Amino acid sequence: LFDKRKKSADVNLIFIFVTYFKATAIGANSQAAHSILKADYTENMSILDARKLAVKVLKQTMDSTTLLPEKVEMCEISFSNNEDHSVNFHMLLPNELVDLCDEANKSSMK
Fold this sequence. Notes:
3 helices; alpha+beta; 5-stranded antiparallel sheet
């Protein structure tokens, strides 16, 4: 999963990699991201749970109090299960990001 954060004139990036083996993050605030991933990542999580975790990490490591979907881009790169093991690329749609960001903003208010 890839998340890109935009901040006024400059661009901050945080990369969150969720594989069959582990999750990690590089970029701004990666130490805080590692703490969250260490606590919340599980090897058998679904794609939806991985998306939610990526957004949670983004929300908790950014400077703003509200995560806005128009400031987030997320894509998924995966291998297919068929014989050719082709690579699949999916850029999340705006409505998918709205739902994820809304959930992250609500859960941080609790």
